[in-house]
Amino acid sequence: MKEAGPRIKKIPAGDTHERLVCPECDYIAYDNPKIVNIVIAVYKDKKTGEEEFLFCKRAISPVGKWTLPGGYMENGETLRKGALREAFEEATAKPKVGALVAIYQPPSKHEVIMIFRGDMRSRKSAPGIESLETKFFKWKDIPWNELAFPFIADALKAYKKTKDNQNFAPIFLKPRPRLWPRGAVNGNMPPHQPPKT
Fold first, then answer.
1. pLDDT tens readout for residues 45-60
2. pTM of the predicted protein model
3. What's the first-to-final CA gap in the chain, in angstroms?
4. Where do the domains of the chain lie, and which CATH numbers do they carry?
5. Which residue of 38, 59, 110, 134 has the smallest Cβ count within 10 Å?
C-alpha cells in the first residue's frame, strides 16, 4: 500500500521548526502542546469556616493515586468551561470556577496545565469513569504521600498563597520530575513532602 499523508520531516518555508510534511501536497502537520485544565475545588464549612479540598482517586495510571479533577481541553471550550466539565466528568462536581491560580509545564510532556480556583457550595460528589473514589480533605488530612503528580502539591501551595487575593498574577510552577512511572499501579516510589505553609 502506498504511503500517504505527512511523513517527511523538514523545516517548511517560512518556519523555524521541523515538522512532518506531505511530499505530494505540502500539507504540514503541526504538533503543538495540549492544554490541560485543573480545578482546586474547595468547600468551606459553614460552621467552622475550615476549607476542604476535593480529590479524585484515579482509575487510570497511576491507579489509586489522588489528584485534583482535571483533564484535556476540548475544541470550542473556554478554559473555565473546560475545567468545569472535567470536574463533573471526574467527580460529578459543579464548582464555580474562578481565578487562574497557577500554570505548569511538565518537563517530559507537551502540555500546558492551567490550574483554577473553584468554589463548592456543598460536598456533593461521586466518582466518574476515570475515578475510583472522590473525597474532600481538610488541609491537614490531604494524602501528600499518595498524590499522583508532584506538581499537585505545588498547585495547592499556590492556592494557599493567593486565596485571599482578588487581583494577582498566576504563579508559574517550577518543573518537577515525574513521580510514578508510566503504567504504574499503586507504585512503590519515594513519597514527596507536603508544601510548607
1. 999 999 999 999 999 9
2. 0.84
3. 61
4. 1-31 (2.20.70), 34-172 (3.90.79.10)
5. 110
